[in-house]
Amino acid sequence: MTSLDAVTAWIEKYQAAWASNDPEQIGNLFAEDAAYYPEPYAPPWRGRDHIVEQWLARRDDPGTWQFEWHPLIVTEDLAIIEGQTIYPTVRYSNLWVLRLDRSGQARQFTEWWMDQSKPS
Q: Which of the residues 47, 50, 81, 109 could staple to 96 if both were Cys, CB 3.0 to 4.6 A apart?
């Protein structure tokens, strides 16, 4: 069951893993058979080990980003998170679609992001 407390705890753990790039912290975010969509229509990274591998291949250096977020929707099955990721030279608008299992791990996670520096 998803709740605002569970979503907040997951995002705090996500930010800690993002800052550390620690494989164990990253892996603990996701269910063993999770699907992580790095972009909405990209093929997902399937399974915890593949997610950790792909995360680390694209990792950000610690201290090079800031992340702000707030929930838009939290239901029993789904959370929609709006956020901003700020790097020294670029800012992204984020929309995250998150589905947690009963243990608080993501079973599905999709990132929608837009580079704010590029005109539409």
A: 81
